[in-house]
Amino acid sequence: MIGAIIGDIVGSRFELNNIKTKDFDLFNDECRITDDSVLTLAIAKAIMESEKILKFTLASHFKNDEYCKILTSMSIKYLREFGNKYPNSGYGGRFRRWLHQLNPEPYNSFGNGAAMRISPVGYFARTIDDINMLSKCVTNVTHNHQEGVNGALAVAQSIFFCRCGLHKNEIRKKIQDNFYNLNFTIDEIRDDYEFSATCQKTVPQSIVAFLESSSFEDAIRIAISLGGDSDTIGAITGSIAQAFYQVPSDLEEKALNYLDKELRDVYDQWKMFIENKNCLY
């Protein structure tokens, strides 16, 4: 999850002022956390609280309807709680309205918010069936359009495959077979690439940024250099790159300085919670 937070923070100052090069300082005083980090932490909190209620291992109940009901309820609860507690984080208009509805309902969105907050699922799930079930439970509360679900699934599966030790060419094939055409390079599309907040026009680009990278930091730099919705592309790419490369400790510490105490506490709880969670593939 720290990979998503780093990508969000690094990309935050470039969202409305794109940079089309990899040559920039990762962190400075203009950087901040945005909705990408806030809502990623909210999903992590929802997963942890669901586990407290259920008190048994995910592998034994991934098809359990009751589990999905609880996780869905917790996702709504903490997305709304965190969203309202951090109101100036850059939410989209439809999500902002959802935060204030008396009885919040999904709004058929295919926005990239589905993909930028999904990384806790990718790090928690033990099997690909878990990935598919959990992703839909936490995504459908807002982004119930199939393209929104696909965006979240593609990112969560990419993280899972990295955790399981698959090579990049294997990951590329799996995502291409099931979700998106990845037959392009960032250099080929960079000059003409424009802002989009849809899964279809940000998730495949974020995955390719990871696939072209040589390290975690390089993945972030490639993602930001594309332009467009920089914080979200950075968050998506960073969430996958973390699983493949791990995150250098100095970058983790720098990023955590941007979190207030409450968000840092959630992060610390998550880090302990997720320790020794292995994938079964």
Order of helices and strands: HHHHHHHHHHHHHHH
The CATH superfamily name is ADP-ribosylation/Crystallin J1
CATH class: Mainly Alpha
Please state the overall shape, judged from the principal axes of the Cα atoms.
globular
Strand content: under 5%
Measured between the Cα atoms of the first and last residue, the distance is 21 Å
Task: Give your account of this protein's structure.
By secondary structure, the protein is mainly alpha-helical. The chain has one domain (2-15, 32-273): Orthogonal Bundle (ADP-ribosylglycohydrolase fold). 61% of the residues lie in helices and 0% in strands. It has helices spanning 2-12, 35-54, 65-85, 93-99, 113-116, 119-124, 128-139, 146-163, 168-178, 186-189, 203-212, 216-226, 230-245, 249-256, 261-273. α8 packs antiparallel against α9 (168-178), α11 packs across α12 (216-226) and α11 packs across α13. The longest helix is centred in the first third of the chain and has 21 residues, at 65-85.
Give the arrangement of secondary structure elements.
Elements: H1 2-12, H2 35-54, H3 65-85, H4 93-99, H5 113-116, H6 119-124, H7 128-139, H8 146-163, H9 168-178, H10 186-189, H11 203-212, H12 216-226, H13 230-245, H14 249-256, H15 261-273
Helix pairs in contact: 1-12, 1-13, 1-14, 2-3, 2-15, 3-7, 7-8, 8-9, 8-13, 11-12, 11-13, 12-13
Distinctive features:
mainly alpha, ADP-ribosylglycohydrolase fold, 15 helices
